[in-house]
Amino acid sequence: MNRWMLMLVGIMAVSPIANAQDLHVTLKIRYAADNGAVLPRYTSQQWKPQETAVIICDMWDAHHCLNATRRVKELAVRMNEFVEFARQQGATIIHAPSSCMDFYQDHPARKRALAVPTSPQLPEQIESWCHWKNDAEEQIGYPIDHSDGGEDDDLEEHARWHQQLAAIGRNPKAPWIRQIDLIRIDQQNDYITDDGVQNWSILESKSIKNVLLVGVHLNMCVLGRPFGLRQMSRHGKNVALVKDLTDTMYNPKMPPFVNHFSGTDLVIEHVQQHVCPTITSDQITGQPPFRFRTDRRPHIVMLVGEREYDTNRSLPRFAKQHLYRDYKVTFVHAAEDDPHAFPEIELLDSADLLLISVRRRTLSDNQLNIVKRFVGQGKPVVGIRTASHAFALRDGQPQAGHAVWPEFDSQILGGNYQGHHGNKEDADEKTYVWKTDSDSPLIADWPADEKVTTSWLYKTSPLKPGAEVLLMGRVSERMPHEPVAWTFIHTGGGRSFYTSLGHPDDFANEAFQEMLSKAIYWALKTN
Question: What whole-number distance in Å separates Cα of residue 341 and Cα of residue 398?
Answer without folding.
Answer: 13
